Amino acid sequence: MPTAQPLRTGDPQRLGEYELSGRLGEGGQGAVFLGSRSGETYAVKLLHGPVGDERAAFLREVELAKHVARFCTAQVIDAGFDEGRPYIVSEYVDGPSLAREVALTGPRRGGALERLAVSTATAITAIHRAGIVHRDFKPQNVLLGSDGPRVIDFGLAKALDAAATVSGRGVGTPAYMAPEQITASAVTGKADVFSWGATMCFAANATAPFGQDSVAPVLHRILTASPELGLLEGRLRRLVESCLEKDARNRPGSRELLFELLGESDQLPAEVLGTPPPHILRLTPPLVPEPRTPPMAEPEATGVPGGYVLPGGTAGDDRPSGPVTASDPGQTPSPSASGSGGDGVRTVDSDDMGRRGWPRAAVAVSAALLVTAAVLSAVIVPTLNRDEPVSPVARPAPPAQSLPETSKPAAEKSSPAKPKETQEASKPPVDPTVPRPVTVPVPELVGLDRAKAIKAIKQAGLVAGPVTQADSPQKIGQVLSSKPASGVGVPKGSTVSLQVSAGLAVPSVVGLQRKAAESALTGAGLAVGTVTRACSDQPNGRVLGTQPQAGKRVAGGTAVALTVARKGAAVPSVVGRPQEDGRAALVAAGFTVRSQGQVVEDESRVGMILSQSVQPGTCAQRGVAIVIVVGLEGQSGSDPGEPSVTPTGPISGE
Predict the structure, then answer these.
(1) Measuring CA to CA, which residue among 155, 115, 122, 111 is closest to residue 136?
(2) pLDDT value at position 341?
(3) Pair (456, 599) in one structural domain
């Protein structure tokens, strides 16, 4: 909110328990004061008109407003009445309104616009959830606090209804009213959705989608014309367009609007909505697959040379299923003597298994190391382009041999063609011989004036394309956007088009009353300048002219001076002039003249007008009598202090 101004004559000093210390602003609904209670600061809004029989309904709505979620709204604290006029106390938000901020700094863009859209849609959803329809959502009712946007002035529908009935004015601001508010149809929360869409258009373009000139044309366009969405883009543009549908049934509700802004839930990845899917929980596969080696011969527990058995051997194999025992070399062992079972496979006891366990483990580990070394050699060695000669080994490597001597031969023996293929794949790609086009980034152009932007485009090796204009509060000729956008890489010599600010047109306010004209100027993104009063036959307070004149384009926030009518004709200054000249001037201005004489000692002042009853420059009603005092020469025999009065009727020659 802006800095509080001193209280004016007639402003209350206290409302209920709240002491008022200054004025924060005034609008069509009421005045807002800075109040305090127990050391806390509040915003206190006092409505202009009484609520009549709606006192109880107003208080009920305030109770509902107190339960509105306060993360995107100014919390409603209290309410009451002062001589029949309702007031409502809310949290004080120290920050400018969206209308003022856009007028001073320009439209919102990108993330700032999206954050504004989500925050205000959240506020509307919270207000509707409490059972309240705002009915006057507009840029002036969105305050930009230090912790984010806040929506204010909700919970006043009943009071505004009653005040509108008394004053004959409708509830809402014309440029942001929904069609059903204009036609006096049933108003639901979708009217706030329409106003939200219009407010987002203003935030993006610094102007309302149906204009903000005279009331009648604006209302007509809301009912019949398509909205001007301006610089809104993408998904937000489509969503705002749906919110500005003429038929409320075709608009989304506030909750649906918020969900659309956040994105549909079924478009979110499964890992956000529930348990992570299997592809996230799956373990990473090993870099080297587990080796699968053919059956290897296992040494017999007795350690007899040549005594080996193959695992899985059966009685039907052509190979012997068991070794010859050392106890009787010349004797063929019988099944009972060899300890074999009925299937012809030699069985060993637990002591035999214990004694032969370590050589089996050593063989398995060695085999795994050999396979790992083979894979690493096939990948790494060709990459390093080593052409060392290798000779295949015909004999099996013993388990206890060192790894470096056996890894490379095993790799070449297991896959002799793979290193060549891997080496081919590992070679760096050959650069193409066809020259690629030279690309350059589009320079930063937004914020520059038109001439500097075109110069920057040429210096970057690009070509300046067409230049279009758009309404904007930025300085006239300042670049708003470029296509392609700044930072995008494009081939050298490409064309870059620009969109520059055309400024804002001064609205036509001649013929309006002063307050209405000031509202029109601020609503158009301009400021109110000096106000000069001029005598006129027009009613008091009517605007006679502006400077700059209507239609002239200026930057946002430019002060527009007003000339306002004061009923009556200007009284000319006649003091110091000869009596006849002064009288003629007053008569020509439309006044009647009465003369009085006053003796003077200075002969040079004889016959001259010494004073006039109405101050020069004052606006007086035509036909009013103005008394002039004329200097007279002193006469003998008369009291010099006694003035001689001239006839008050018309003089000869009039």
Answers:
(1) 155
(2) 41
(3) no
Distance between CA atoms of residues 530 and 5, nearest Å: 18
First to last CA, the chain: 61
Among candidate residues 596, 599, 567, 572, the one with its CA nearest the CA of residue 586: 572
Q: Is residue 467 part of a domain?
A: yes
Token pair belonging to 93: 């938000």
> Is residue 356 assigned to a domain?
no
| CATH code for the domain in which residue 513 is found | 3.30.10.20
561, 547 Cβ separation under 8 angstroms: yes
Catalytic residue among 11, 53, 78, 136: 136
Is the pLDDT score of 368 beyond 90? no
Using a CB cutoff of 8 Å and minimum separation of 24, what contacts does 23-31 make? 25/1, 27/140, 27/519, 28/169, 28/173, 28/519, 29/136, 29/153, 29/156, 29/160, 29/163, 30/85, 30/87
Q: What angle do CA 412, 414, 420 make, to 5 degrees?
A: 50
Tell me how far apart the 2 most distant CA atoms of the chain are, in Å. 189
* Whether 449 is catalytic: no
Q: Are residues 111 and 54 in the same domain?
A: yes
What CATH number should be reported for the domain holding residue 96? 1.10.510.10
* 79: in domain: yes
> How many structural domains are present in the chain?
4
Give me the domain span that covers residue 494. 440-502
Q: How confident is the model at residue 365 (pLDDT cuts 50, 70, 90)?
A: low
Kindly tell me if the per-residue pLDDT of 387 is higher than 70.
no
Distances (CA, A) of 183 to 137, 139, 194: 18, 23, 15
Q: What angle do CA 44, 174, 107 make, to 5 degrees?
A: 80
- End position of a domain, from candidates 502, 523, 543: 502
Whether 527 is in a domain gets the answer: yes
Strand 142-145 vs strand 85-91: parallel, antiparallel, or unpaired?
A: unpaired
Sheet of 559-567: strand order equals 527-536, 559-567, 543-547
Residue 536: strand pairing partners: 567
Together in a domain, 459 and 542: no
Rg over alpha carbons for the chain, rounded to the nearest Å, is: 48
